[in-house]
Amino acid sequence: MTVQLVLAAVGAKAFYLLMVWLASAIVAAELSKRKGYGEKWGLGTGLLLSFVGAIIWAIVPPRADSPWRQRQQRERAAKTDAT
Fold first, then answer.
1. Euclidean distance between CA atoms 27 and 62, whole angstroms
2. Which of 2, 7, 21, 64 is most buried, judging by how many CB atoms fall within 10 Å of its CB?
3. pLDDT digits (tens, 9 = 90+) for 25-45
4. Residue 9 per-residue DSSP state
5. Burial, 24: exposed, middle or buried (Cβ in 10 Å; 0-12, 13-18, 19+)?
6. In the predicted model, what is the mean pLDDT of residues 62-78?
7. Model's pTM, two decimal places?
8. What are the two backbone dihedrals, phi and then psi, of residue 30, each rounded to the nearest 5 degrees?
9. DSSP readout, 27-54?
């Protein structure tokens, strides 16, 4: 009886850690895709390094022809047109 209660407590913690791990992999994959490196690189980094992988992709500079860079250029153009 007590073994089941201990396993249930560990199971809830493991579930929350699993959700954090998967969410960080999703964030890292999306960031790497937007920065022009491809989704696989971010997914691999996010799965292997968990939360640190998402932080790494937030720091990595975007490629010149990436959607991230294109969005920055559109925002700059909109600001200059507005002024």
1. 15
2. 21
3. 999 999 999 999 999 999 999
4. H
5. buried
6. 88
7. 0.77
8. -65, -40
9. HHHHHHHHTTS-HHHHHHHHHHHTHHHH
